[in-house]
Amino acid sequence: MDVTYFFRVGVMEMIKIKGLLSLLIIIMLVSACGQSNSNTNGDSLDNSPNQGNESESVDNDTNGNNDQGSSNEASEKESSDKNEEGEDQMILESDLEYSVQLHEDGSSLIVQMKLVNVGEQTKRLEFSSGHQFDVVIRDDHGEIIYDFAEDRVFTQAFITEELAPGEELIFEDTWTDMDPSVSPLQISTKLNIYQLDGQSLPGEPFQLEKTWSSEE
């Protein structure tokens, strides 16, 4: 009877000890898992500054490219404005460079049209008549105050001109009734080339308009 009692007490004590050991093992495992997660989070945080720097570098590169693009666009626009308003305005078609110069001489306005062969081959120009060019001048209201071809009679015969490389063909017209008080003036010019090297030209490519003020 007494032996049985002590045996049962001993078994219960052993069960309690095993339970405590199991609980201790569980606590140790949970603690180890917590440390592992903490290390992983720490590594992630250490990498964050580098990612931020990479993002900042990409943003800086993008902004730099945008600034350069804006600068190029501004430069192109400035060049275009110069061509529209300056004396260097010209047209290049089939290796022929067409430009117009204006000169004031007292009460006269001289319109000079120049065609230069900038290519490496001789160019053959054909005009269907003596009406080789046009000059029309309008006032600031858009009304025609001078037309070169008005009341003129032109030779009705083909005219051929040949331009070797580097050579130029110059046409000149003088308007003798210019009134300095009428300003600015819009001068429209055109070359009436019928064929170039035996081929018809698409449209009328050699046309230029310029604005003239007596203050110039």
UniProtKB/TrEMBL annotation:
Q: Where is the composition biased (Basic and acidic residues)?
A: 74-83
Q: Which domain of life is it from?
A: Bacteria
Q: What ranges does the record list as Polar residues composition bias? A: 40-73
Annotated region Disordered: the residues are 40-88
A Pfam cross-reference name: BsuPI
| InterPro entries per record | Intracell_prot_inh_BsuPI, IPI
The Intracellular proteinase inhibitor BsuPI domain covers 96-180
| Name of protein | Intracellular proteinase inhibitor BsuPI domain-containing protein
